[in-house]
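Input (structure):
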């Protein structure tokens, strides 16, 4: 396999992981949440928890993949000192997103999982943090585009 093909595959893995992470958050916030309002409270909580469980399993794989492939690409381009500032900002946003995800997962999500009857406020807290992470994810993508030399 050619050297450039390997780096193209690393970039493809990076972009695919970011698409899954940010796209999943957009789906959760703008499609799933409004659709859940059609269900009664018990069904809503159950479906919401099942969906979050599946999505968070995906994020636990994509998050480290995106961070590691990003660092590999920075290494390939010569390191943090030589990459354009939007790449460094993109890396910072990625770390912030990982921190927010950890806050969601170990905070309100675990509270909802342990509760016999999760309160709507817990899901609202998760949604607020997901919305924040979605916004940062979009900014991260914009940074990646700003760094591309057209």
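Output (sequence):
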């Amino acid at each position: 396999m050619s050297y450039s093909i390997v780096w193209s595959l690393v970039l493809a893995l990076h972009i695919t992981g970011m698409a899954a992470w940010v796209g999943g958050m957009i789906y959760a916030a703008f499609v799933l949440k409004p659709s859940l309002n059609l269900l009664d409270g018990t069904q809503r909580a159950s479906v919401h928890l099942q969906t979050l469980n599946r999505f968070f399993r995906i994020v636990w794989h994509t998050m480290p993949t995106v961070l590691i492939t990003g660092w590999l690409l920075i290494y390939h381009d010569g390191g943090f000192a030589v990459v354009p500032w939007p790449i460094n900002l993109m890396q910072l946003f990625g770390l912030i997103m990982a921190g927010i995800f950890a806050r969601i997962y170990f905070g309100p999500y675990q509270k909802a999982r342990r509760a016999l009857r999760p309160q709507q406020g817990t899901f609202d807290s998760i949604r607020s943090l997901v919305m924040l992470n979605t916004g940062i994810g979009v900014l991260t993508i914009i940074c990646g585009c700003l760094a591309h030399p057209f």
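Notes: The chain is about 85% helix and 0% strand. The chain has a mean pLDDT of 93.
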